[in-house]
Amino acid sequence: MQKLGIVAGSYTAFGNDANDISMFQHARSSVCVGEHAALQNVATECVSSDEAAVR
What we know:
Elements: E1 12-15, H1 21-25, E2 29-33, H2 37-40, E3 45-47
Parallel strand pairs: 1-2, 2-3
């Protein structure tokens, strides 16, 4: 994200796996999609990945 000129703390990140941890740590806010313990520990919000839960 730095290579794209995106400043840490200026974006909201969405992710669903451990490879998103670094992005979450530098985001203003972050949303974990699904049940991923590693991300849930650093996310500011968690949402279900179950399509029936989306309204």
